Amino acid sequence: MNHKHRVTLHALFAHPISSNIDPKAVKSVLEELGAELSHGGHGHLAIKLNGVSHSLHDTPHSLSKDTVAALRKFLEEAGVNPGRDFPL
Questions:
Q1: pTM of this prediction?
Q2: Which fold has domain 3-81?
Q3: CA separation, residue 73 to residues 2, 3, 40 (Å)
Q4: What pLDDT, in 10s, does the model give residues 4-45?
């Protein structure tokens, strides 16, 4: 995982929750983690990582705080811990 991916991953877990995260960078991080991404109907992105599934609205704009919180929860359930696995 390169430095840019690590920075994006840590931004998803930062406190307070950031609302200025690029969705393209998040998709790239998810692919780097080994997630399967597929475009569902009605502009949704389906994500599957380590047997855990999640869906979010595929937007070209910065992710909302609610979306970041949901992604954080999904990644935790999938066993991703950026502080332990991917230190800066």
A1: 0.89
A2: Metal Transport, Frataxin; Chain A (3.30.920)
A3: 23, 22, 21
A4: 999 999 999 999 998 899 999 999 999 999 999 999 778 899
